[in-house]
Amino acid sequence: MSDKIQVSARVRRRTESEIAAQSPIVVSVPDDFCSTDEPYVSVNASPNTSFGSGSDGSGKVFTLDQVYGANADQELIYKNIARPLLRDFMAGMNVTILAYGSTGSGKTYTMLGDLVGEHAGIVPRVLQELFQVAKDDICVKLSCVELYKEELHDLVNDELELNSKKPKLRLLGDGSRDGRGTMIQNLYELDVVDAKSGFEMLQKCLGKRKMGTTKLNSRSSRSHTIFTITLHKTVMSSSGQEVVRSSKMNLVDLAGSEDIIKSGATDASAKEAGSINQSLLTLGKVISALSEGKEPRHIPYRESKLTRLLQGSIGGRTKTALIATISPAKSNLMETMSTLTYASKAKNIKNIPQSTADSELVLKRTKIRELSAEISRLNRDLLATKGKDNSIRISLQNYEDFERKIAELRTELKEKDTQITGLHAKLQGRDKDIAELKLQIEQTLSENSKSRSDLAAKDAELHKTTKEFMHLKDKYSSQKERVSNVTGTGISSIIRDVNEVINNLNDLTQVSSNVKEIPTVVQTHLCLFKKTLEGKLNDVSSKVEKETSAFEQVLANSMDFSTLHNVCQNLDFSSHVAGVNKRNEQLTDYINSTHLSEDSAMYKAFEKKFKARMAETYEALKEQYMQQMHLAFDGFVKSSKDANAEAVRESATEFMQEEKTTLSKEYQAYIHQNSQTLQSISTKTKSVATDLKSFKEVATKDVQGAFGRLQKETKQVIDNALADITNTSRSQADSIEKAATQKAHIVSDMIDKNYHGISRDLNHTEKNLKIFSQSLSELQRSPAQLKRPATSPASRSPSRSPMRSPSRSPMRQLNGQSMIPDIKRRRTEMSPLRNDLHKSRIPQL
């Protein structure tokens, strides 16, 4: 009874790349799940946006047995296609399920998918259900073969690939009458007792498959894979005897046909694609030839190993189901049309499936006919050999056949002898290679052990060197912090002293403003005195007014302090103070940027020299170590360590000496600049003192002369007039004199106080500068502490005597002469309150 191949089509969803490329849908099906009543697939000329049955009727329509849309899941495919064939397989019939389609259309997902879960494919679901419904009287064997570039590979037992002595897989006929059955010689079959062991074998085989990445699919099968399940089941025959019935189930995952331009295949992948396309082209020829149904016809099975493997499944005695997987996108339109064309042709192929019992009966009958023909041939040969002289005679045709077979056997024997000789030579070469490899392994192990010990010693030495480096780094950090503290303290003290000098100068400015206010106060008291005299002395008002105006004019001319105010205004110390501040800031920036910062030139230069010296020392150690590795490693490391430490100390000492010289020059320039500034301040102070002294002398003389003349002129006029108001006038004049005298005392005290404050601040500044100079001298000597005391004299750098601090402060002496005058003595000489030469000569009224 003939049975056609069951053909189904499965349409997947569009992939992300197809959606991104905006490739429209050109395939429509009646139902997005499953369609068996109207199993057609329409490829439309005008694209649609969904699967559905919304076709407008244009395009080409392919009619199949079953059609599954994008919403059909793995369970539905297995239930409708694989489960009925599994039942036939367990009933003793040979069955085949194969997936056919272009690359990336979903063949591997349909056949394999995941091992468990809702995405499990047909193969794991078949294994699971087989062991669920099977009984104890069965034996299940699994095999898996891969066809890659027309070469067969056993994925279950890969020892054949690694061992050249094992025979390769070969395709042979199974001895069936029509010659369409094939078997694989030397293929290993694994006994499986449960689904778990079957899954383990399946996972192992999947890991060995040839996979690749193309533009169309990130994980594309590059070979054809056939999973075969062989079932041996014990049944009772019609005669009441137990017989073993065998059946096979082939699950085929074909590699997809692909366009080399679209897939981007090059070099090796292009050859793989060419081999895949060639085998699928031959499969298409076989399907086309079988679908024509004409007798007699030539079926090109032998043009490819794939068609020979599928010879029993396509047009043979196997019940077959073909699943055509297609893409709905317009970008794969040509591949979809080709797949559906071959699928519709395969639908017309007729197989003659037979159960195992029927096939055994047919085989027995065929064997009887073959044996009968052989008996007839032998009888003819026996009759031909009978002669009168009892000699043996055979027919000429048989004789020629025997001669030809003998020649072939001799040729084959020579070839076998040659192969044996070559194999012996290869075996000897392999033995020699193995011996050499063993020797190399022993040498490598010995060298590895020695290298490990050397590496451990080197690690210890590196750890020790790192520890010493960290110690030096900590010591350098402490020295750096000390320099920062000393310089910061000295500079802040100098800035504080300068600020005090500026404050004192501001006080001196206030004194000048107070001196300027004296004429105003005197004028106010004179106006009050004038008003009192006008009220009580009406009779002498004209004379008193005249003399008073003269007195006011003389007093105004005599008490003009504008000259003193101008001198005080011209006494500008801001430029000198700004110069001192600027120089202090320059010195601070230089010390911070050059010596104290990790980004400074000193730190980077020290680090650079240290790394360079370490690199040179390491290279020298490495060369000496390779040359004298077996002689004296321990002593060499010790001496190299001392030399390395001494080299580092020499480099640090040399660099610190250079930086000390540079710092000393900067310090001397700073001292010289401050000395010039202070000398200028001293000169200005002397000039101001001289001007004040001369001004006071002139002002005193003018005031004394004016008051003398005023006394003589007014004594005669107001002798009698002032008799009655003598007490009142005398008391007011005393108050005016007292106020003027107090104001003069206040001015003198403020001048004295400010001169005393300036002297004290200058002395304090001199003291701080001296302390700062001593601190810098100590810092100049401190870098030498980095050197280790236990070093050889020959390797030590030449010592340099540290710069001694001067016996006297540079602020006090320059070329043997004092830069700051004796302010106290000068102040005593200039004070009108403490010197009799400058005693006030203002007459007492």
Descriptive overview:
GO terms for molecular function: ATP binding; microtubule binding; plus-end-directed microtubule motor activity. Residues 780-845 are annotated as: Disordered. ATP binds at residues 101-108. It is found in: Cytoplasm, Cytoskeleton. Residues 361-454 form a coiled coil. The protein has 845 residues and is an alpha+beta fold. The protein folds into two domains: 3-354, Kinesin motor domain (Kinesin); 474-838. The protein has 19 helices and 21 strands. The chain has helices at residues 16-20, 74-90, 107-111, 122-133, 159-162, 195-208, 260-263, 268-292, 305-309, 333-346, 356-385, 396-536, 541-558, 562-570, 574-596, 601-627, 633-717, 726-781, 823-830, and strands at 3-4, 6-11, 25-28, 34-35, 40-48, 60-63, 66-68, 95-101, 138-148, 151-154, 170-173, 182-185, 190-192, 211-212, 220-221, 224-236, 242-253, 319-326, 350-351, 813-814, 817-818. The strands form six sheets. Strands 2, 4, 7, 8, 9, 10, 13, 16, 17 and 18 form a ten-stranded mixed β-sheet that branches. A three-stranded antiparallel β-sheet has the order 3-5-6, covered by helices on one side. The chain has a two-stranded antiparallel sheet with strand order 1-19. A hairpin with a 2-residue loop joins strand 9 and strand 10. The chain starts with a strand and ends in a 15-residue tail after the last helix. Mean pLDDT is 71; it is low at 49-57 and 782-845.
Characteristics:
ten-stranded mixed sheet, Kinesin, alpha+beta, three-stranded antiparallel sheet, single chain, 2 domains, 19 helices, 13% strand, 845 residues
